[in-house]
Amino acid sequence: MNIITKIECNINNTKTQFLEHHKQKMGFIPVTVAALLVIFVGFPLSSNAELDPSFYKDTCPNVSSIVREVIKNVSKSDPRIFASLIRLHFHDCFVLGCDASILLNNTDTPTKIESEQQDSPNSSLRGFDVVNQIKTTVENACPGIVSCADILTLSAEISSVLGGGPNWEVPLGRRDGLTANRTLANLNLPSGLFNLTQLKSNFAAQGLNTIDLVALSGAHTIGKAHCSSINSRLFNFNNGKPDPTLNTSYLQTLRNTCPNNGPESNLANFDPTTPDTFDNNYYSNLQEKKGLLHSDQVLFSTADVDTISIVNTFASNQDAFFESFKASMIKMGNIGVLTGKNGEIRKQCNFINKKFVENDLASVVPKESSEEGMVSSF
């Protein structure tokens, strides 16, 4: 099976899983087939899952337009918001599933919650204020209807589109979780220093395969990283020498942005060619040894691995990348979702409803970094 066929199978598997799930809800397929789909697609399919792009058709029909308008307005003064919102969705789904746990602040009552935002992979996350702005606008139009988890998922898709990337029908109907897990945030989120074996293992633990890994990594076609994320590659990767997989001219460019012992808060573009456009240049950059993070470049520079052919395909065929990215984002968006009577629809995204009512915390938002950085790989 060549790489194009594998990619097409990955895309078709995701579509098949989604369609067959709806048939299962109607009682049209036996459980044995559903079980095979779970194994074949590679992620758990909750028996009570009710995700559907038309979930809010009657209860909040304009939700996508509302989310889009807020993000579009914010992007006029903050063009990096697209990358930030995509990253928020990723960091949410890799810890306890796509349940908006990443948005919860520290609380002691009614139950103790240790915010995932304060774990090192999440310390540079940004965009929380924008999510809260979206939530407020949505609540004004459709009070108590749309979950923060769905807002994160919609925001990621809309950010892709506004950045010039692909669009897709977002399955909706997630409910918000009632807790967070700081320990899992540290364990589950991939590091920018990971090698390929570690990355594959990390993604497999979430039910995501190698094509998903390479496709989702393509989100690094936009956004920036702090110098603290790459300094070791530039000056002390191995016995005081730089990472040999770095293009030498690119190395010097990065050293100008991130001088030795200079400010670690300086920012470098993930894509040195079209940094604000969602395209497939991320992959051609890898071919030229211009991956910003070590975990980017290992997709192409690790010897004799299957990711090389996927990178080559995406570098030469943007449509193939876009289709795979769409399929992988839908697949990731199904990780550990809460539906039905599980979870809740938070009134304010940073607190569970009991805490919100108890202390009237509508105006409280998490402290976030003023800059966008990457401690984790994604």
TrEMBL record:
Binds 2 calcium ions per subunit. It is found in: Secreted. Its cofactor is Ca(2+); heme b. GO terms for cellular component: extracellular region. The active site is at H91. This is Peroxidase. It catalyses: 2 a phenolic donor + H2O2 = 2 a phenolic radical donor + 2 H2O. Residues 50-353 form the Plant heme peroxidase family profile domain. GO terms for molecular function: heme binding; lactoperoxidase activity; metal ion binding. It comes from Lupinus albus (White lupine). Belongs to the peroxidase family. Ascorbate peroxidase subfamily. CDD domains: secretory_peroxidase. It comes from the Eukaryota. Disulfide bonds join C60-C142, C93-C98, C148-C349, C227-C258. The chain crosses the membrane at residues 27-45. Ca(2+) 2 binds at T221, D271, T274, D279. Ca(2+) 1 binds at D92, V95, G97, D99, S101, E116. Substrate binds at P190. Removal of H(2)O(2), oxidation of toxic reductants, biosynthesis and degradation of lignin, suberization, auxin catabolism, response to environmental stresses such as wounding, pathogen attack and oxidative stress. These functions might be dependent on each isozyme/isoform in each plant tissue. Its main location: secreted. The record marks R87 as: Transition state stabilizer. GO terms for biological process: hydrogen peroxide catabolic process; response to oxidative stress. InterPro entries: Haem_peroxidase, Haem_peroxidase_sf, Peroxidase_pln, Peroxidases_heam-ligand_BS, Secretory_peroxidase.
